[in-house]
C-alpha cells in the first residue's frame, strides 16, 4: 500500500479520532471500583459500537463472572496469517482527584499531549488498533491479514476472568501472532519493541490484635501494637543491599546472559533523565545492577500502601486494632507467582510474633513473559516502526506486567508482539495521565503497516 496515502488519510482524520476517543474516555471504567460495574458494561458496549463502525464483524460481548470481554473479527484473507489483537478498556482509579489539572474523564489537549485517565493506558492504544483497521478498510479492497480482537475490562485488577476464557476458547482465538499495544516506547519518537515483561504477585498483609481500637492509656504498653508489628515486618522485607529477604525468593531467577546485559547497557540512559521522568530524589535499588536491570531483569517487592489506626486531623490516643499493607512483587523468568506467594507466606509465619494475629491474603497474580525477538512477526513490527519513525527500533524489556501475555503464548502457541506507543513519563496510573499525540497518529500508521508487512512477507499461517 502507498504509505503516503495512508499517512495523509490518518492525518486528515485527526479531529475525528480525538472526538471519538474522548467519548470512550468519558466512560468511567475503573475496574477496581465495585460501584462502576455499569460503566464497565457501557464502555464494553461503546467499544463494540466503534468496532462495528470500523467494519469489524461478528462483534460480540462475552459475559464473565466479572466485566464483559469484547470480541470481534475480520476473517477474509484466505491464505494469509491471522493476527489476534488484545487490549484493555478498564483504567486505574483517579485519586487523588485534586492533583488533576483537568477532570480525568474529560479528554483535554494541552501542547503535544492528550490528557485523561486511560489516554495512554490503554484506551488510547486500543483505539489506535480500531483506527488502523478502519484506515486499511477505507484504503484497501482486501485486508492484508485476518484479524481477531479481544478486549477485556479487568487487566488492571489482574485479568482474573480472561485467563480461563483464553484456555476455553482456543479455537475462537487461534492466531499466528498476538499483537498488544499496552507498553511504552523508550522515549519520544524513539521506535521501540518490548520483548519482556515482569510478572506479578499481589497480596494483602494484615496484623490485628484487639477486636476494636483501645484507649492507649489503659492498654498501651501492655499489649502489642499492630502498627508497630507491621512496620517491623515491612522493614525486614529487604536487606541493606536492596535484596528481598524472603528465603528462596531468587531461586528460580534465570541469570540473564552477559550479551543481553551489554545490549541493555548500550541503550541511552542517564540518571538525570530517569530522575526527571520519575520526579524522585535519587536512584536506588538492588546492589550490583543498573537502573534498567533493576526494572527489567530483577524481581522486586514493594509496599503499595499501608494503613492502620488513626490518620485523621488532630490527635487521638488509641492502640489500633489492625494494620494492613498492600504488597506487590514483580517477577522475572522463571519465577512462578504461586510459588512466590507461598514463600512469602511461610516467611511471614516464621517472623510473625505470637502477640498478634498476622494474615496474608493472596490477591491477583500474573507470570513474567519474554517474546522471541527473531520471530517473523517481530521482524515485521520492527520494519513497520522503521518505515513510520524513520529509524530502527530499540529492543527493550519493561518492568510492568500484562498478566495474560504468557497465557496467550502457551494456550495459543503464538508469540506476543508488544508494540506499545506510550511513554514512561506519561503518568499512567497517576494524576494527569497523558498520551503524546504524535505517537497516537504514528502508532495508527505503524499498526496498519505491520499488517501489510505480515501479509506481504509471506508469513504463512502456523509459523
Ligand atoms: N500497561 C500496563 C503495563 C505496563 C506498564 C507495561 C509499564 C509496560 C510498562 C498495564 O496496564 C498495567 O499497568 N498492568 C498492571 C498489571 C497488574 C495489576 C497485574 C501493572 O503492571 O501494574
Ligand atoms: Zn495497560
How does this model look, in words?
It is a single chain. The chain is α+β, with helices and mostly antiparallel strands and 463 residues long. The chain folds into two domains: 3-197 and 368-456, Aminopeptidase, CATH 3.40.630; 199-253 and 299-366, 2-Layer Sandwich (Alpha-Beta Plaits). The chain has 15 helices and 18 strands. The protein has helices at 3-12, 14-25, 37-54, 123-139, 162-168, 170-173, 216-219, 226-235, 258-266, 271-278, 291-296, 337-351, 376-389, 405-412, 437-456; strands at residues 57-62, 69-74, 82-88, 108-110, 113-115, 146-152, 177-180, 192-197, 199-208, 214-215, 300-308, 318-319, 322-331, 357-366, 369-370, 394-397, 416-418, 434-436. Strands 1-2-6-3-7-17 form a six-stranded mixed sheet, with helices on both faces. Strands 11-13-9-14 form a four-stranded antiparallel sheet. The protein has a three-stranded antiparallel sheet with strand order 4-5-18. α13 (376-389) crosses α15. The mean pLDDT is 96. The structure holds ligand BES and zinc ion. Ligand BES binds at residues 121-122, 155-156, 158, 182-184, 200, 364, 366, 398, 400-403. Residues 88, 121-122, 155, 182 line the site of zinc ion.
CATH class of the largest domain: Alpha Beta
| Head-to-tail CA distance between termini | 24 Å
Please tell me the overall pLDDT. 96
Q: What is the helix tally?
A: 15
Q: Please tell me what the overall shape is.
A: globular
CATH-defined topology of the largest domain: Aminopeptidase
Main beta-sheet strand count, sense and barrel state:
6 strands, mixed
What descriptive keywords fit this protein?
463 residues, Alpha-Beta Plaits, binds zinc ion
